[in-house]
Design goal:
The protein is built from six helices and 14 strands. Strand 4 and strand 5 form a beta hairpin. The chain binds thymidine-5'-phosphate.
Length: 237
């Protein structure tokens, strides 16, 4: 498969057309940003880790019946995926209060939520990705009611699958962000990535943060935390 024109460049990934219709190549970068691009840096090895962690988890989810855009990993930092039109929503699932939820609702980080919280943010960097609800999504035509209903049930099922799986390797899944897309044939699939950039992972024994909060909050050991997640998920071979 050959890379052709770059069709998108985001903060952490580039996406290319290929010589095969309907197939894109995602290329992961080491670049890191936070606070809507105000903080910038680089995390050595992040691209390779996020690519491999994402693919590992996407394949696990596929086995459990969640449709995804994943086709095949091409090398350490690049993966072939199905071409989709991204639904402009960040779908956030939370089991434990942290980050913006803790701030917004005045909860101490680490507070166990009485039930799972599902949030949607409108993907608009220029507006700072504002929180929206289902009536906003309907009013703006961001997704159909049917798509939103599938997105919600997939998001909760993904939370159950990933929480149980990560628990086995000593990682508590605090919260995470998903993005969905629609293929050329109209199928709704999980897209984007599932990695320490897009999830909060806390060590179950020590509570140590093993995710991008180490970069956002200048906690140190950033590279080590990403490597630790990869080793726990993919082994140390
Ligand atoms: P938040 O607490 O900052 O709203 O983040 C919730 C989850 O979403 C957390 O796991 C990190 C992830 N996230 C992203 O993937 N991209 C983003 O731009 C932001 C702000 C959060």
């Amino acid at each position: 498969m050959q890379k052709r024109k770059m069709v998108y460049e985001g903060k952490a990934k580039r996406v290319y057309e290929t010589d095969q219709d309907g197939i894109y190549i995602v290329s992961y970068k080491d670049d890191a940003t936070a606070f809507n691009g105000q903080k910038r840096g680089s995390i050595l090895g992040k691209g390779a880790i996020n690519n491999q962690v994402t693919n590992h988890l996407m394949q696990l989810l596929e086995k459990e019946g969640i449709p995804t855009h994943f086709i095949e990993q091409l090398n350490d930092t690049e993966t072939a995926v199905r071409r989709v039109r991204i639904i402009p929503l960040e779908v956030i699932v939370r089991s434990i209060a942290a980050g913006s939820l803790a701030t917004r609702l005045g909860l101490e980080e680490g507070t166990v939520l009485k039930s799972t919280v599902l949030e949607f943010c409108f993907k608009r960097d220029d507006l700072g990705d504002p929180l929206v609800n289902s009536s906003h999504i309907r009013a703006l035509g961001l997704a159909t009611d049917e798509q939103l209903s599938f997105i919600s049930s997939y998001a909760l099922k993904i939370n159950s699958i990933l929480s149980a799986y990560l628990q086995e390797v000593g990682i508590a899944l605090i919260d995470f962000k998903l993005e969905f897309g629609v293929t050329d044939s109209g199928q709704l699939v999980l897209a984007d990535e599932i990695s320490p950039d897009t999830c909060r992972f806390w060590d179950t024994k020590t509570g140590k943060k093993l995710d991008k909060d180490r970069f956002r909050r200048d906690l140190g050991d950033v590279e080590e935390a990403y490597q630790e997640v990869m080793h726990r998920l993919l082994g140390r071979a």
